[in-house]
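Support case: adenosine-5'-diphosphate complex. Customer-provided input:
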Amino acid sequence: MRKAVGVKLKLAKEFVGFDGKPADFRALFDKNDKTDNYHNLYSAQDIRSARLKLHGIDPSITNKRIIPPIINCRMAKGGTGKTTICGGIATALSLFGYKVLMIDGDPQASLTGLFGINWATEDITHIGELMFKYCRKENYDINKAIWPIYDGGMLDLIASDISLANSDSWLMSLSNREFTFKKFLDTNIEFFYKYDVILIDSAPSTNLLTNTFMCACTKILAVVWLDGQSLKAMQVLAANVDELNNAFEGMGFHLNVHIVANGYHPSYSSCKESLTTLVQSYPGMLNNVIIPHSTSFMRQIELFKEEDSGTVLEREPNSMAARSIIDLARSLIKEYQLKLADNYLI
Ligand SMILES: Nc1ncnc2c1ncn2[C@@H]1O[C@H](COP(=O)(O)OP(=O)(O)O)[C@@H](O)[C@H]1O
Ligand SMILES: [Mg+2]
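Agent response - structure generated as follows:
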């Protein structure tokens, strides 16, 4: 079982968007359901209810049953920080009060590991199994695939294990297979609409599984490590996106790319050169927040005590690394037009 996650007053005020006095801030919370350390730690659920209260929003009044925006972390190469960024922004968006669903779409299951779940020993129902049963018209229950990471449905995970690698073998036989995941979402809209955002961590390869995730999106999040190899991988990914856009143009499908640069180190000139190339080659597509190279990110995984693993924001909330993840998450709220209980707040 993971430790209860929360942030202290200063960060909680920032996430809520409140700059008044601490006493007025505390008045936003309903004391009845709080434990003794209530004044010390604010959970994602606390922050959501405070934001809704502050803006006078009644969350029970939701009009739209729509699939929320999907942020699919992609790169045609391993080790660029896809999982780090995916898990990081998931925890940050949840602490901004958004209800977040993470889907581990990589058979390597690193996102699953980041949240302390040992896929080798646990019984995992992954997204491939759910889609397979949906396609075969067999019974399935998405609720049984969910691992609650934060209370109150603030951060849920559909975990993965190595058997997800089998997906292409059965996807191959389907017609219109690129849209399998989209059809699965639409069919289960009653389950998915309760989230404000869905995050998918993808494998590096270009295959039917990674394509079907991309075909449910309007904008992928390309995570580029600032070196020459990653720039080449970005070209491969851009070609993959072009192919999908050409193939499905007639269906009104168009996929955009938003780029986040990761691993910036001021003393390496190669980082600066890669950044310049990125800006020139993909004008207007690069996020303003550049994620620095930081050892804090490397401390996220506890190999011998999985339950102590967690994102940099959970483990070192005041670090420079956590700051960059918070800033990135804030900019993505805008970029992907995320809504809190149907309301656009930033
Ligand atoms: N900004 C960063 N600074 C330092 N190390 C990083 C950074 N981003 C990721 N890492 C480390 O690089 C390795 C690969 O990151 P990961 O997120 O697993 O990449 P991917 O999912 O693209 O394969 C991990 O050990 C991770 O801790
Ligand atoms: Mg990964």
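The two ends are 34 Å apart (CA to CA).

Case will auto-close in a few days if no follow-up is received.
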